[in-house]
Structures are given as C-alpha cells and as structure tokens.
C-alpha cells in the first residue's frame, strides 16, 4: 500500500511540476536536450568570464552569440516541450532553426578560421554538433511519438 501511495505522489508531483504536461520518455528526452543546450551556453560564458584565450577579431563575438543562442534555444525547448510533442509546425520551426544555426556555425568557422584558437574553434564546433544532434533528436522523438 505504501508503494502505491508513493507512486501516486511522485506522479502527481511530476505532473504538477511540468505544468500539467504529459510526463513520458518523449517529454523527458526533449527537456534533456534543452538542458544540455543551456549547460553548453553557460560553459561558453564561463570560458569567457574566466579569461580563456579564444582568439582575435570575431572570436569573442561569435562565442558570445553562440552562448546566448544556446541558452535561449535550450530554455525554449524546455518550456515548449508540450507544443513540440503536439504540433508539427513547432517541430518544423525547431528543426529549421537548428539547421540554420548549424550552417551559420560552420560559416563562422570558415570565415574566421585564422582568428580562433584551437580550443575556441573546438567549442564552436561543439555547438554545431549539439545543434545538429538537437535537430535530429527533436525530429526523431516527435516522429516516434506520433507513430
């Protein structure tokens, strides 16, 4: 009896903590992707705040923009998970934005390859990889959920 009460309380707490959104593997996966993006953006800011050598010219502005975009998209993914799971247009927008950011990240690396340190270029490349994986995970998770 105690385990049934505990399970019911946990389900209620989880359901109310997510704003009444359905709580399942798909929603937790999308929220996890959003959390990873937020953490990645915060790591970028920590790198800049701690004074790491990132390069010259456009290196610092690119890292700031990548960090801001990563945090913003991560928070949006976490906040809009119920919409991503229920609306196809939201999925198309999320995947499209990730694709555009991947292309812009690669373009920034190509245009300013001589202005980044190896570590900073690796960080921007990590953002490109996270964007590509995020687009793939969002597309796959929402497609599997609908199937």
General description of the model:
This protein is mainly alpha-helical and 147 residues long. 82% of the residues lie in helices and 0% in strands. The chain is built from six helices and no strands. The protein has helices spanning 2-17, 25-49, 59-79, 81-86, 88-111, 118-146.
Kindly name the structural category.
Answer: mainly alpha
- What portion of residues belong to β-strands? under 5%
Note the total helix count: 6
Mean of residue pLDDT? 84
Helix content: over 70%
Count of beta strands: 0
| Poorly predicted ranges | none
How many strands, what sense, and barrel or not for the largest sheet?
A: none
Which overall shape is indicated by the principal axes computed on the Cα atoms? elongated
Radius of gyration: 18 Å
Quick summary:
Helix content is 82%, strand content 0%. It is mostly helical and 147 residues long.
């Amino acid at each position: 009896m105690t385990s049934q009460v505990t399970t019911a309380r946990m389900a209620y707490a989880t359901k109310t903590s997510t704003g009444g959104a359905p709580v399942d593997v798909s929603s937790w996966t999308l929220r996890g992707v959003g959390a990873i993006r937020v953490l990645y953006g915060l790591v970028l800011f920590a790198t800049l705040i701690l004074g790491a050598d990132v390069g010259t010219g456009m290196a610092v502005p690119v890292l700031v923009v990548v960090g801001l975009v990563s945090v913003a998209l991560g928070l949006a993914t976490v906040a809009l998970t119920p919409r991503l799971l229920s609306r196809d247009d939201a999925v198309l927008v999320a995947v499209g934005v990730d694709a555009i950011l991947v292309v812009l990240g690669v373009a920034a690396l190509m245009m300013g390859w001589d202005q980044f340190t190896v570590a900073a270029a690796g960080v921007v490349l990590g953002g490109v990889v996270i964007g590509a994986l995020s687009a793939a995970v969002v597309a796959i998770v929402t497609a599997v959920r609908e199937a």
